[in-house]
Amino acid sequence: MTLPANARPPRRRIGIGRHGAALAVAAALGYAATRLHAVPDLRLHFALFGSLHALSVAASLLPRPRAAAIALVMAAAGLLNAATAGFALTIGPTPRLLGVPAAIAMSAAVGAAVYALLLRATWIEYLRLREGAALVFACALTTSIAARWAPAGGDGLWRLSLAWWLTFSAILCYLDRRARRASC
Fold first, then answer.
1. 62 - beta bridge partners?
2. Cβ atoms of 165 and 27 closer than 8 Å
3. pTM score, whole prediction
4. Cα–Cα distance, 108 to 119 (Å, whole number)
5. Geometric angle at alpha carbon 122, from 59 and 26, rounded to 5°
6. By the 8 A CB rule, do 19 and 55 touch?
7. Can you give the pLDDT at residue 138?
8. How does pLDDT run across 115-136, given as a tens digit for each residue?
9. Where are the domains of the chain?
10. Which of 17, 85, 167, 177 could be cross-linked to 142 through a Cys-Cys bond (beta carbons 3.0 to 4.6 Å apart)?
C-alpha cells in the first residue's frame, strides 16, 4: 500500500512489551561491552548506549520504520550522545566549576533534550515541548540519584546509562499510551 504524496504517514505507536524486551537485550549488550572493556573511550561508550537505545525504540514501533531510517537515527543518537558526554564530562568547564554530580545531571538533561528532539523529528510526533521538558527533568534527576550509588568506571557508567534509559523509556511509553487514549 502506498500513500498519496500529500498524505501523512501512519502514526507510530510503541509496543510497550516489545520495547521492554528490546531494552533488556540492549542493556545486556551494553553490560557485556562494559564488562569486556570493549569500549575504552567515554564518548564511544555513550555513543554505543545511545545507538542501542535508539534501536530498542525502533524495534518497538508499529508500524516499523524502514531499515535505513533506523540506521540513520541510531547513528544520529550515537553521535549526539558522544557529543553530549564529551562536552559535559570532559571538555566543558562544568566538572571543575560545579562538581561531577552537576556535570552528570547536565549531561543527562542535554542528552534527553536532544534525543527527544531527534525522536520528535523522526518517529514520535506527539512529543511536545512540555512533555519534553518533563523528560529532561526526570532523566537529569534519575541520573543524578543513580550517580550517588554508581561506582567509578565501567559498571558505574552502565548503571547511569541504564537509569537514564529506564526513565526515558518509561515516560515515553506513558506519553504514547496517553496519546493513544486521547485519540480514541
1. 13
2. yes
3. 0.81
4. 16
5. 30
6. no
7. 94
8. 999 988 888 887 888 888 999 9
9. 13-183
10. 167
CB 116 within 8 A of CB 136: yes
Q: Residue 61 in 3-state DSSP?
A: strand
- Asked, as a colleague might, if the bond just before 63 is cis with ω within 30 of 0, I would say yes
Instruction: Say which residues have a Cβ less than 8 Å from residue 57's Cβ, sequence separation at least 6.
Output: 14, 19, 22, 119, 123, 169, 172
Q: Which residue has the cell 565501567?
A: 154
Residue type, 30: G
Distance (Å, whole) CA 162 – CA 160: 5
**C-alpha cell at position 139:** 532523566
Compute the distance between CA of residue 163 and CA of residue 140 in angstroms, rounded to an integer. Answer: 10
Neighbours of 157 (CB within 10 A): 20
First vs last Cα of the chain: how many Å apart? 24
Residues of the chain with pLDDT under 50: 1-4, 7-10
What 3-state DSSP class applies to 124? coil
Helix (H, G, I), strand (E, B) or coil at 40: coil
How does DSSP assign 62-97, residue by residue?
ESPPPHHHHHHHHHHHHHHHHHHHIIIIIISSHHHH
| Secondary element (H or E) of residue 22 | helix 16-35
